[in-house]
Amino acid sequence: MISYNSNLVQDVFGNLSIDKTRLPSSGLTAVGVPSFVAEWLLDKIVPGSGTLTSTELEKVNTFVKKAFPRKDDRNEIIFDLTQGEVRKLIALMQVRVRLEQGSKEIPDPIARIPVLNLSDCAIPLGLIERNKMLLRQGVWGKISLAMQPDGKVEVIDFDPFQCSKVDLQAYADCRARFNTEEWRDLLFCSMGFNPQHPSYNQESKTWVLARLLPLVESNYHIMELAPKGTGKSFVFENINSKVALISGGKVTSAQLFINGKTKEVGLLGRHDVLVLDEVQSLTFDNPEEVIGPLKNYLASGRYNRSGFADISSDCSLVMLANIELDEHLQPRNEDNIIANLPNFFAETAFLDRFTGIIPGWKIPKFQREMTSYQFGLKMDFFGESLLSLRHDNRFISYAQQHTKFDKNATIRDQNAIFKSASGFLKILYPHLDLTLMDYQRDCLEPAQKLRQEIRNSLYYLDDEFRKFGREVYVEAK
Question: Does 261 lie in the same domain as 328?
C-alpha cells in the first residue's frame, strides 16, 4: 500500500482541500450540520489543521449557539423580530410558489426555513433570481430575517454557502497530477473514510466509491444491500443539498411525485439524487399508486399523477437496505438476495429497471478508527464536482466504443453496464487519460459485477430470464 500524500493534495487543490480531522473534533455534525456546510464553516471560523484546540472549539461552539437555530428557538426569534431586530442565522432555506386554483393573480413566492418550522416568509424576487437553487432542493446559507409592518416574517438578505459552478477542465487537470491509486485514496478520504486502514482493500474501496455513481450519472438507479454499520447512508447525508434522504417508514406518492393539494412537485422532481434508506421496512399506503408511476419513472425518467402533465426529471434513485449474512459473511439467500425486501422488489419488471446492486457485505463494518484523518477535498467542492459531471457525454461515448458484450446480454443489461462504466470513468478518470486495461479493471469489471447481482435474482425469480443464461459476459475492446 502506498502512503497517503497529504502534501500533494494541498499543493494541487489548495484551499479546496481540508484536514479531515477538523470536522469530527468540532462536534458540528452532532448538532445536525451536514459536512458540506460544516467544513466550509470551519475553514472560515478556525482555519488550520489538526484536531481543534480547546480555544478553537470554544470559538466554534460560541458561533454555533449564536448562528444555528434549534426548533425551540422559534418563539424567541419571532419575539426579537417583533421588537424590530434583524436576526441572522445559518440554516437550509427553500422557496415555493403556491398556485391557487381559479385565482386570477400570480402569488408571490414564499420562503421556508424547516428548522424553525417557518413556512410562509416573504422574500424579494432579486434574492431568488440570484439563487435559483432555492426553488429546487433549497440552499444552506446565512439568512437575515426581519418583520414587515403587517406581522409577516421576511427574508431581507441571503448569503449562500454552497460551492458554485465547478471548472471541470481544472478538475481534470488536477486529476492528472495523481496516479490512479493516489486519486482513488483521495476520493475515499474525501468521503470521510481512512484509505490507509488495513480493513479496506481495493475491492472494498471500489464498492464504497460505487456509492458516488448516482451523483455522477443522471437517472442512475441502484440498490445497496449490506449488514448494519457499513456507513451506507453517511455520504448521502453529508455531501450536498441536491441529495435527499428518507429513512424507512411510510412513503406517499405525494412525497415522491406531486402533491395533489398544493400542486408541489415531489422529491423525485426536485433533487438530483433521492435515497430511500432502510427499505426493508418501507411501506406504502396505496402501493399501486406508488409502484406503477415509479416503474415508469425508472424506465423513462418521467412520471405523472392523474390530472397533471408529465414531469421529467434526471433524479437518480438509491435504495439502501439491511440484509442478514451467514457465518461466512455472505448473504443468507445468495441466489435471491432481495428475498427479505418488500414484495414489490420481487416483481421482475421493477427489479430489471435497476442498474445494479452494490454488494455492501464486501464493505467492512465501520469503526471509529476508519474515519479519515488526512487532507481530502472539502465536501461542498467534492459534491459539486461530482454532480457537475452528470451531463458530460464523453464518458458514455467512451464506454460504448470500448465495450463488447456476448449475445446473452439484454438491452437493459447493456445500458446498465454502459452507465456504470461511464460513472466509474467520471469518478476515477475525469481527465479520460487511461489504457484499455485500466478501463477493463477499474470501470468495466465492477460495472459488470453490479449488474450481475440483478441478473442473479432475475434468473432465480423468473423462467423468462433463464433462457439468457445466468452470467453477463463483457470485455473491453
Answer: yes
